[in-house]
């Protein structure tokens, strides 16, 4: 099995979170593979910018998820281990990277976003990240 280490972001602007719809019509959070020499945090910020056009800053870690799937192109099972970061977007501006295969995306209020996200562990991650984000915002 191919194991890939990845990083991604849960970006908030006000009381909304950014989601993308991938080429399989799944609603997901921006993320990407960490290449050698890259820091997870930098990969997460870079993918947020390249996939969503969202300029954000990391405010905290959000947690980790792991999932497996069968890659048709590689003809092999793949395990993705993702480190997630909570991010705060400077503005609501965004640009979905259609050229990277994304079909849709945008800012969604938290509860509708939780319902929209395809995978249960990503829904749980969003709920926990939102709670932590709100705590951090109140502390400032």
Characteristics of this structure?
140 residues, alpha+beta, Nucleoside Triphosphate Pyrophosphohydrolase, 7-stranded mixed beta sheet, 29% helix, globular
Short recap of the structure:
The protein has 140 residues and is α+β, with helices and mostly antiparallel strands. Helix content is 29%, strand content 42%.
Per CATH, what is the topology? Nucleoside Triphosphate Pyrophosphohydrolase
Radius of gyration: 14 Å
Highest CATH level, the class? Alpha Beta
Let me know the number of strands: 7
| Fraction of residues in H or I helices | 25-40%
> What is the string of helix and strand elements?
EEEEHEEEHH
Quick one: overall form? globular
Q: How would you name the CATH homologous superfamily?
A: Nucleoside Triphosphate Pyrophosphohydrolase
Can you give the mean pLDDT?
95
Low-confidence stretches: none
Describe this structure in words.
With 140 residues, the protein is α+β, with helices and mostly antiparallel strands. It has a single domain (2-139), classed as Nucleoside Triphosphate Pyrophosphohydrolase (Alpha-Beta Complex), CATH 3.90.79.10. 29% of the residues lie in helices and 42% in strands. The chain has three helices and seven strands; from the N terminus they run E-E-E-E-H-E-E-E-H-H. The mean pLDDT is 95.
Helix/strand layout:
Blueprint: E1 2-13, E2 16-21, E3 27-28, E4 31-33, H1 40-52, E5 56-71, E6 76-89, E7 104-109, H2 110-116, H3 120-139
Parallel strand pairs: 1-6
Antiparallel strand pairs: 1-2, 1-4, 2-3, 2-7, 5-6
Helix pairs in contact: 2-3
């Amino acid at each position: 099995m191919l194991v890939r280490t990845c990083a991604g972001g849960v970006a908030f602007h006000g009381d909304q979170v950014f989601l993308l719809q991938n080429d399989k019509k799944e609603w997901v959070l921006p993320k990407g593979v960490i290449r050698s020499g890259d820091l997870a945090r930098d990969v997460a910020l870079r993918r947020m910018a390249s996939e969503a056009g969202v300029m954000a800053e990391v405010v905290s870690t959000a947690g980790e998820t792991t999932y497996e799937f069968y890659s048709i192109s590689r003809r092999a099972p793949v395990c993705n281990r993702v480190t997630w970061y909570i991010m705060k977007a400077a503005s609501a501006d965004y640009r979905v990277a259609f050229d990277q295969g994304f079909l849709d995306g945008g800012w969604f209020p938290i509860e509708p976003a939780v319902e929209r996200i395809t995978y249960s562990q990503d829904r749980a991650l969003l709920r926990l990240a939102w709670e932590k984000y709100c705590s951090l915002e109140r502390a400032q």
